[in-house]
Write a structure and sequence with these properties.
Layout lengths: L5 H13 L1 H4 L2 H25 L7 H21 L3 H12 L10 H18 L3 H24 L3 E7 L5 H11 E11 L4 E9 L5 H8 L5 E6 L8
Antiparallel strand pairs: 1-3, 1-4, 2-3
Helix pairs in contact: 3-4, 3-6, 3-7, 4-6, 6-7
Amino acid sequence: MNQLNFSDVFKKSFVAMQSGMERFTAIEIVMNLGVSFLIGLFIFYVYKKTFQGVLYQRSFNIGLVILSMVVTLIIMTISGNLVLSLGMVGALSIVRFRTPIKDPIDLVFIFWAITVGIANGVGYFNITIIGSIAITIILLIMTRKVEQDQPFLLVMQIPSLKDSDTAVGLVKKSVERYKLKSTTVTPNYTEVTAEVRLKSENTEFLTQLHDDGSVLKATLISYSGDLSQV
């Protein structure tokens, strides 16, 4: 049995480079890109449906669709060609991505789009379709549980520290769960920040706090666990 050495691999790579256009016909290129676009569009709607952050960015979501198609083109270009593969690795190694990812789930969607592009680039459509359906089902189940137990951040400006017990007592009776986060005392007012979980979507207790004069100002904010996103 003949063994291939490193020089033989390079020779085959150069031959593959010369006949590279014959490896993918125009129909195959359009098909791979088309499937990547459709699944990328599917990822677009899943991300929009399951988004749990503070500010939805449509440009990021569109980037997921384009990312899957670009990766598909890259994989079709370097597949079966060692020389082009090494060149692509060298070219991508000088690229620095400095876009901050605030929500960890966004990173999951980025890897999802990249995986779709890789699989579609070599024609593994069954992997992308079945995998995308499975990921979507898991995401819908997990995000539905989060929606049922959505925490909020309550910020209250109380006239004095003495009145804080009254205001906090009323809040505890009106919500399902109350957890103190911070207390700030100033010469003019006392600011209390707490994590609360509502019994329902009814927020009439905020109006009652204001009418009773228990607080100067009360703000209820959707809370994702990261104070930098509030």
